[in-house]
Amino acid sequence: MKKEVQVDEKGFRKFSIRDSFAYAAGDFGCNMSFALKGTMAIFWTQFMQMDSILYAALLIVVQVWDAINDPLIGSIVDADRRKYKRNKFLTYIFIGSLGLIIGGALCFIPWRNAPEIAKIIIFICGYVIWDAFYTIANVPYGSLLSLISKEPADRASLSAWRSVGAMAGNILPMVILPIIIYDSNNNIVGERVFIAALLMGVLGFIAFQFMLRNTEIRVEETVTLNEKRPKFNVFKAIGNFMRNRPAVGATVAAMGMFLGMQGAATAVVVLFQSYFQNVKILGIVQLFAMLPIFLFTPLARKMVVKYGKKELSVIGSLCSVVACIAMIVLPITPDAKGLIIYVLCLFISSLGLGIYSTVSWAMMGDAIDYNEWKNGVREEGVTYSLHSFFRKLAQGIGPAIALVVMVALGYVEANEGSQTFEVALRMRYLVAGLYTFSAILMYVGLGLIYNLDKKKLTKMNEELDSARSKLETE
Questions:
Q1: Residue 225: its pLDDT value, please?
Q2: What average pLDDT does this structure show over 337-348?
């Protein structure tokens, strides 16, 4: 006998774990494509033998595309007033998911002996195509959170489960890829990366389809507090974003998080190649470091209701700062003892990071509401796309700057997984320094800029509910 679906007072299916699983599947799909980005620098500098400074310059160039791509697609989504069978966000996500089937693999075409100009063209074209489809899927996906439910506890649950989806999407490549794509000499094998990227694109598409089939929209995305809706103005929307303290604070924190994760990604690989001399265990180490996020996720909903998202996140960022400083000063030697100390510091840092990451997307959902509260318009697409742009900027600029510093510290791409011990030792301190900088930036964004504490958030939600009720009765 088929179980009867429970509905709320407006006739929507009641919010349940089904919504959380579906939303988690969306970020799993995104990360099936995005997780390989951390492998790009090693692939292009070690396997493709591209000069590290040239690669860093090209990485910055493609961020110009990001600068145009994210806000442009966000504004297109916001300005789109057409009626879709289900929802415009879900439609854009479906289109993006189709392109991502092969989009990620285009960044890893293993033509090692290609002329230098051909390598440059392959990198730029592959990245631009992948990034376009990723943005078409990811920007509407992020905006969707504020439309699935308006309840703070539900949003906290969605954000927490999005983190679970992101982790699951990261764990598969994180643990398995180092074992598969590196040979016995700790060198990367490009053909294996290309095949892995294709398989991950297919898995991502399947995950997106599950999300699309199980998502219920309960909040009208065109809600506005103005009786007459003004013509959409992208420049005004960007100005609103820059005056939106919660959006700016959450964005600064996210940039800090990704400067550490993506900026240090290449240096971490070199650290395990040439310092600990076992790159195949890198995935296991990173998996262990992510355990705190899994531990906190089941508690996120209750703790948010009791303490508040901002309050918990600030405490978490302080934990990360302390752990990262410890990583600099403690004696992390290239033996088993040093590896254990490194893993313990990473574990504590990830505990703080886990607290923030499980509520980070709920904080952006609140920031979208904040814009409606202060400016009378929601502007989900632009608000989220600008947040996404700055995240991507950190993901691009971070590795580029890190590579330049690595070269200055003696890194030679032609040596592949056999850097000198002096260079490897410098990578040990560079990794710790990058993690510390990112943790401090996270604290600045969450503790000093983001201003929606539990009390203010309650006031905002009450006033928004009152204003929306008046509009519905008019």
A1: 35
A2: 92
Query: Per-residue pLDDT for 438 more than 70?
Result: yes
Q: What is the pLDDT of residue 442?
A: 92
Spatial CB neighbours of 268, under 8 Å, sequence gap ≥ 6:
282, 431
DSSP 36: G
**DSSP string covering 336-399:** HHHHHHHHHHHHHHHHHHHHHHHHHHHHHHHHHHHHHHHHS---HHHHHHHHHHHHHHHHHHHH
Alpha carbon distance 368, 378 (integer Å): 6
Q: With CA atoms as reference, report the closest residue to 146 among 383, 327, 353.
A: 383
What are the sequence ranges of the domains in the chain? 17-473
Which DSSP symbol is given to 15?
A: P
Give the pLDDT of residue 227. Answer: 38
Q: What confidence tens digit (pLDDT) does each residue in 241-278 have?
A: 888 899 899 999 988 888 777 788 888 989 999 899 98
CATH homologous superfamily for the domain 17-473: MFS general substrate transporter like domains (1.20.1250.20)
Encode 175-196: b = buried (16+ Cβ within 10 Å), e = exposed: bebbeebbeeebbbebebbbbb
Nearest-angstrom CA–CA distance, 367 and 146: 10
Instruction: Please report, in angstroms and rounded to a whole number, the separation of the first and last CA atoms in the chain.
Output: 43
How many CB atoms are closer than 10 A to CB 357? 28
Distance in angstroms (rounded) separating the CA atoms of residues 130 and 125: 8
**Residues of 107-146 as b/e, b for ≥16 C-beta within 10 angstroms?**
bbbeeeeeeeeebbebbeebbbbbbebbbbbbbbbbbbbb
Cα–Cα distances (Å) from 194 to 29, 45, 180, 183, 417, in that order, read 18, 16, 12, 15, 20
Residue 427 exposure: Cα atoms within 13 Å on the Cβ side? 29
CA atoms within 13 A on the CB side of 350: 21
Cα 200–203–206 angle (5° rounding)?
150
Q: Which amino acid is at 296?
A: F
Contacting residues for 292 by C-beta, under 8 A, at least 6 apart = 347, 350, 351, 353, 354
Report CA torsion sign: 356, 361, 362, 365: positive
Q: Is the pLDDT score of 222 beyond 50?
A: no
